[in-house]
Specification:
The protein has about 550 residues and is α/β, with parallel strands linked by helices. Helix content is about 30%, strand content about 25%.
Length: about 550
């Protein structure tokens, strides 16, 4: 069994700015010449990122950005993202990273909802913003990383456009940190739900420190000797910790990759930069395993530990990945609202198929619909308590009260805890199926299906039989070279029956070329459900 670091004991002073801890702190510790970020073949030192962050902060002040005003980041993973994020926070303004995979209408909503005064954007994403400039009520300045087409220019009715390089070069490299408290707003992350508009999760100056100490150090054992690489992007809560504030919190190095996280490209990046910690999602790990002879074609040996989040990691994928690449995957669960992972497996203590045990600094209750704790082993609603939880949803008072009750937040997940203290994911609250009066976890059925050698991915939802009773239905994506057939569908039903209680097997199997997914690779079961079903209230979004 691998020895874990001691649980950290730390205090955060009342006057605290996150940029001091994660940016300037590395200079105080003498790491100015150490590589902070590897990006497209270039190494950026902590001194360089700190200087760039200071110039960003001064540039924002020169534009009239004040404390508590929002600054949106529509940026690819890059040193500019790190500098814009921490430079904004350092002046007491609020950084708002935004998903780069959305549509123009989504950006109209988020930029107007946040009332962002300034927007950082990579030139490659300009086409998503240019058509909506006139609709952005509060935006006054756009800072562009890269070169815009010559035809793109602002007029009197749209925000002023600044070239990032020219803009920062004019700004001072010395910046005084704003006198913020540990409970001031530092950044927002938008949490998408199954229905309605995205919710702005307001995170405070101390939240990143909390996650770094209790998960980054205590669970991952991350140190300044590590190199991190995250397939999940920086605009996600999961990726933001993985590849920005965790490594910056200990003086490690991070690999920033601006492209799509395709399996083969992930292997190539690992070979080039030799990271020691790799963060992915279950769909990516399945895709990496599906590549022919990947363990012979690529060198993955630098990676000492892998991490998975976003949705439950099937035990079969975990076992096959470890057998193939000789490295453990620590599956865990987190949410945008709680900022990072709060239940996780540990190195040397993995229970395949489980989410692991509570991360230090967090408490959990599994409760029934009335909020009463259920007996150990029973399925119930997971509630979490921890000081990284969002202060509230911006401008959504009633929704905040629906989800947050004092110190506790309703995660929207169904779980049970076994006798050894491990937590087992049973699906989202709106995914669980009641079949013959008994709960059926879609995840359990999906895990059984994916263990079949012909199956690449699966998603299970509820459908109605002739008596209008709910039964499981499976959507299956086959591996390359496999052909759909009635015979194979019957074979899969029998395969599941042999592994699970008979009432859990899928009554129908439909083959699809691909499953609907979010930008993080999570399967969107609600798209596969009956479109006439009324969706419940949004619950917190997983990382």
């Amino acid at each position: 069994m691998t020895a874990l670091p001691a649980i950290p004991s730390f205090t955060i002073p009342e006057q605290f700015n996150a940029a001091t801890a994660f940016l300037d702190g590395n200079l105080f510790e003498g790491r100015g010449t150490k590589t902070a970020i590897f990006y497209e073949g270039t190494a950026y030192t902590y001194a360089k990122i700190t200087e760039l962050g200071n110039r960003v902060g001064n540039g924002l002040l020169d534009l009239g950005i004040q404390m508590e005003q929002r600054v949106a980041l529509l940026l690819l993973d890059s040193p500019q993202f790190a500098a814009a994020f921490f430079g904004t926070i350092k002046i007491g303004a609020v950084a708002v990273p935004i998903n780069t995979m959305l549509r123009p209408n989504d950006y109209v909503y988020m930029l107007n909802d946040s009332r962002a005064r300034a927007l950082f954007i990579h030139a490659a994403l300009w086409s998503q913003i240019e058509p909506i400039l006139a609709e952005l009520k509060y935006l006054r300045h756009i800072i562009v990383v890269g070169t815009l087409p010559t035809a793109s220019r602002a007029d009197a009715s749209t925000p002023a456009i600044h070239d990032f390089e020219q803009w920062v070069n004019k700004a001072s490299s010395s910046l005084k940190t704003a006198e913020t408290s540990k409970d001031d707003s530092a950044f927002w992350l938008y949490s998408s739900g199954s229905t309605g508009f995205p919710k702005g999760c307001v995170h405070l100056q101390h939240d990143m420190m909390y996650c770094t100490e209790y998960y980054g150090k205590a669970v991952l054992g991350i140190t300044e000797n590590d190199i991190t690489f995250s397939a999940a992007k920086l605009y996600f809560a999961y990726g933001l910790g993985n590849n920005l504030y965790f490594p910056f919190g200990v003086g490690a190095s991070a690999v920033h990759f601006p492209g799509r996280p395709l399996p083969e490209d992930m292997f190539k990046v690992v070979e080039q930069y030799r990271p020691t910690i790799f963060y992915g999602v279950p769909t990516l790990y399945a895709g990496m395993l599906a590549l022919s002879d990947a363990n012979k074609r690529f060198d993955f040996s630098s990676v000492r530990i892998c991490v998975s989040a976003g949705e439950a990691l099937p035990a079969d994928i975990l076992r096959r990945f470890e057998d193939t690449f000789h490295v453990e995957i620590l599956d865990g669960i987190g949410s945008t609202e709680i900022l990072h992972i709060f239940i996780s497996n540990r190195a040397g203590e993995i229970k395949p198929g489980s989410t692991g045990k509570l991360v230090p600094g967090y408490e959990a209750v599994i409760a029934d619909e009335k909020g009463v704790a259920v007996p150990q082993g029973d399925i119930g609603n997971l509630l979490i308590k921890g000081d990284s939880t969002t202060a509230y949803y911006w401008n959504k008072h009633e929704r905040t009260k629906d989800v947050i009750n004092g110190h506790w937040i309703h995660t929207g997940d169904k779980y049970y805890q076994d006798e050894e203290g491990y937590y087992w994911y049973c699906g989202r609250s709106d995914d669980m199926l009641k079949v013959g009066g008994q709960w059926v976890s879609p995840v359990e059925v999906e895990n059984a299906l994916i263990a079949h050698p012909a199956v690449l991915e699966s998603a299970v939802v509820g459908d109605l039989d002739d008596d209008e009773l709910v039964k499981p239905k499976a959507y299956v994506v086959l591996k390359q070279g496999q052909e759909p057939s009635e015979a194979l569908a019957e074979e899969l039903k029998t395969f599941v029956k042999q592994r699970l209680a008979p009432f859990k097997y899928p009554r129908w199997i439909e083959f699809l070329p691909e499953l609907p997914k979010t930008a993080t690779g999570k399967i969107q079961r609600f798209i596969l459900r009956d479109t006439g079903r009324t969706e419940p209230l949004d619950a917190p979004t997983e990382l």
